[in-house]
Specification:
The chain contains eleven helices and ten strands. The protein is α/β, with parallel strands linked by helices. Bound molecules: 3-hydroxybutanoyl-coenzyme A.
C-alpha cells in the first residue's frame, strides 16, 4: 500500500495525515472544500516547524514529509488509496454521507476506516459499499504524540481488513489494541466516567477545579487532570460520548453530571473556544469557578 486517504482536516484528521506521511505514505487530505484541506496542511506545516526549531526533525525531513501530503478538493484522487480513513465531525449522518460518496471511488481491495470515538462500527459499515472492508481505527489526541490505536471490528469485518490496519499501524509505530464493537470501546469506556465523576465532584463542592486537577495529576501521575483533559478533548465531545454510553447501555452509572451539561449549554466547550473549566484567553489558563 502506497497511499492513504484522510477525510477531515481538523485536529484528528491532520494528525493522522501527519503520522501517515511520516511513515512514508502519500496522503490525500480532504475536507468540505480545498481551502479547508489546505488549512489542515498549513497546520501540519506549523507543527513541523516547531519540531525543526526543537531540533527533533531536520528541515529536509519536514519538507519531504509535507511534500507527501496532497490536499484534494474531492474524493476522486483517493481511488488508488489502499486505505481511506474518515476523521470527520462525530455525527452519524455526516459520516454515513461520506461513506456513501467515497464508496463510489473506493478501490476493489481498499479498506475504509472510521476514526469514530463512539458510533458503532457495525452500524456505520452499512453505509459503506462492503462491510467486510470496513473497520474502526481510533486514534488519540494529539495523534503525533499518543502511541495508541484502538482497532474495532464490525460484525462483518474480514481478517484481511484487520491485517491491512496492522501493517499500517506498525508502519506508524503505534501500539494497537483490539476492542469489540461495544460503546466507548476501551479508552472512552474508562475515561469518560472518570471525567464525568470529576464533574460530579466539582458540582458537589468536593474541591475546586484546580485542586481536583492537581489531585489527579500528582496523585495518579496523569499528564493532566481530568477537567483540563475534558477541556482539551472538548466538553461537547465528552458529553456526547457519555450520552452514548448511557443510552446504549441503559446503565444510570453513565448519567452525565449536571455541571458538564451546564457548561455545554453555555457553549463553554473547552480549549477550542478558549473557555471551559478554564479560561484560555490569557497566557495562563485560569479556572472559571
Ligand atoms: N503535536 C505534536 N506534538 C505535540 C503536540 C501536538 N499537538 N502537543 C504536544 N506535543 C509534543 C511536544 O512537542 C513535546 O515533545 P517533546 O517532549 O519531544 O519536546 C511533548 O509532546 C510534550 O508537550 P509539551 O511539553 O508541550 O506539553 P506537555 O508535556 O504538557 O504534554 C500532552 C502535552 C502531550 C498533551 C500531555 O499533556 C498529555 O499527554 N495529555 C493527555 C492527553 C490525552 O489523554 N489524550 C487522549 C485524549 S482521549 C482521546 O483522544 C479520545 C477521544 O475519542 C476523546
Amino acid at each position: 500500500m502506497r497511499s492513504v486517504g484522510v477525510i477531515g482536516a481538523g485536529q484528528m484528521g491532520a494528525g493522522i495525515a501527519q503520522v501517515s506521511a511520516a511513515a512514508g505514505y502519500h496522503v490525500y487530505l480532504s475536507d468540505l472544500d480545498l481551502e479547508k484541506a489546505e488549512a489542515g496542511k498549513a497546520g501540519i506545516s506549523k507543527a513541523l516547524d516547531r519540531l525543526v526549531a526543537k531540533e527533533k526533525m531536520s528541515r529536509n525531513e519536514a519538507d519531504t514529509l509535507l511534500s507527501r501530503i496532497e490536499p484534494v478538493a474531492n474524493y476522486e484522487p483517493m481511488a488508488d488509496a489502499g486505505l481511506i480513513i474518515e476523521a470527520a465531525t462525530e455525527r452519524e449522518e455526516i459520516k454515513r454521507k461520506i461513506f456513501e460518496s467515497v464508496g463510489k471511488i473506493l478501490g476493489h481491495q481498499a479498506v475504509l476506516a472510521s476514526n469514530t470515538s463512539s458510533i458503532p462500527i457495525t452500524r456505520l459499515s452499512q453505509a459503506s459499499p462492503d462491510p467486510t472492508r470496513f473497520i474502526g481505527v481510533h486514534f488519540f489526541n494529539p495523534v503525533p504524540v499518543m502511541g495508541l490505536i484502538e482497532v474495532i471490528r464490525g460484525l462483518a469485518t474480514s481478517d484481511g481488513t484487520v491485517k491491512v490496519i496492522e501493517t499500517y499501524g506498525a508502519a506508524l509505530g503505534k501500539q494497537m489494541v483490539y476492542a469489540n464493537d461495544a460503546p466507548g470501546f476501551i479508552v472512552n469506556r474508562v475515561l469518560m466516567p472518570m471525567i464525568n465523576e470529576a464533574c460530579f465532584a466539582l458540582g458537589e463542592g468536593v474541591a475546586s477545579i484546580r485542586d481536583i486537577d492537581t489531585a489527579c495529576q500528582l496523585g495518579l501521575n496523569h499528564p493532566m487532570g481530568p477537567l483540563t483533559l475534558a477541556d482539551f478533548i472538548g466538553l461537547d465531545t465528552c458529553l456526547e460520548i457519555t450520552n452514548v454510553l448511557l443510552t446504549s447501555t441503559g446503565d444510570p452509572k453513565f448519567r452525565p453530571a449536571p455541571i458538564l451539561q451546564k457548561y455545554v449549554e453555555a457553549g463553554w466547550f473547552g480549549r477550542k473556544v478558549k473557555r471551559g473549566f478554564y479560561d484560555y484567553s490569557g497566557e495562563i489558563p485560569v479556572p472559571t469557578r
